[in-house]
Specification:
7-stranded mixed sheet; 11 helices
């Protein structure tokens, strides 16, 4: 039996959709960082000049109102990507366009596939599920510094997870805006293991303080299945593999702000080993908005109070839906 006979057309398209994202983004990055500077010394120098002129002219867009493209968010490839797992978006309460929101998402997983598809694309129908709400998925700020890459991700509604960027979208962009923050960040990726429900959240209070300063409602969300689509390897302490692993994680954290993981998934055919995620459902459940007062300079006690309320709401959401989306009744949400 040949490789192609084992893959039907639909599964093949779904696999290509998942495979394309990182190579495509990396290719844009290589063109931006290597090819464009090289072209400056050729007869195509004008391409480089125009690209960097546009970057200079458009520099503040990602820090301010963004530039959503309905066309890019509705690409057919996102639907194939979504169906690969599949990924699903579940609403428990309406989000009124009369308010702004900070949606906290958990857990980070390896690549945050669920939060990307649900909030940066229309594959699961965000605009139909939450009409009149404009989502801005937060990401590492250095990604927005790369020409071409920045235009691509801005079109999907991505913006830097910085205080100035988040504040602008919640105070200078009207109402009906939802900034989505994967609160655990890259550090939480190191906790990504099938069955694990441990979150880095106990001392992550910056998003709560921003909610208070802007009056944005806090909304908990949990992506069930996100930790199940990859298996992470942690080598035994004292071995050279563990030493190498810790070294490159430290270097990547300093340079990129990322904690690179040693992980694997499936290959191009089921049962094989590779870097494709396993075909497991990811369901992002968006909880009830938590009203937050607008306080220009909230005290530590006030921040702690609303942080505790947020964690309580997140635990309630987790406990209500954990069995329905693949976890046991006894599974607990561990916050560290």
């Amino acid at each position: 039996m040949t490789f192609f006979s084992r893959l039907d057309l639909r599964e093949g398209l779904q696999t290509i959709a998942v495979l394309h994202l990182i190579p495509f983004t990396v290719s844009l990055g290589v063109i931006s960082l290597l090819v464009l500077p090289y072209l400056l010394f050729t007869k195509y120098w004008l391409l480089t000049v125009l690209t960097y002129a546009w970057l200079f002219y458009d520099w503040n867009t990602h820090n301010q109102g963004g530039r959503h493209s309905a066309w890019a968010r509705n690409w057919a490839i996102w639907k194939y990507f979504q169906n690969y797992f599949p990924i699903k978006l579940v609403k428990t309460h309406d989000l009124s366009p009369k308010h702004n929101y900070i949606i906290g998402n958990h857990p980070h997983g390896i690549f945050s596939h669920g939060v990307f598809i649900n909030f940066a694309t229309e594959a699961t129908g965000f605009s139909q599920i939450f009409p009149s709400i404009t989502p801005f998925l937060s990401t590492l700020k250095w990604i927005l510094w790369i020409p071409l890459v920045r235009d691509y991700v801005i079109s999907l509604g991505l913006s830097p997870v910085t205080k100035s960027s988040v504040t602008y979208k919640l105070t200078h962009n009207g109402l009906g805006n939802a900034v989505v923050i994967v609160v655990g960040g890259a550090a939480e990726a190191l906790l990504c293991h099938p069955g694990n429900t441990t979150l880095i959240l106990k001392n992550r209070k910056g998003f709560v303080k921003l909610a208070l300063q802007t009056g944005a409602f806090l909304v908990p969300s949990y992506s069930f299945g996100e930790n199940e689509v990859y298996k992470q390897e942690t080598f035994a302490e004292g071995t050279w593999l563990r030493l190498f692993q810790k070294s490159y994680q430290k270097i990547s954290k300093i340079i990129l702000g990322l904690n690179l993981c040693t992980f694997h998934g499936r290959g191009l055919t089921r049962g094989s080993w590779g870097l494709l995620p396993f075909n497991g459902p990811i369901t992002t459940v968006v909880g009830e908005p938590l009203p937050v007062p607008k306080i220009d300079n909230p005290s530590k006690d006030t921040v702690d109070k609303y942080h505790a309320l947020y964690i309580s709401a997140l635990r309630k959401l987790f406990d209500q839906y954990k069995v329905e989306y693949g976890l046991s009744e006894t599974q607990e949400l561990n916050v560290i």
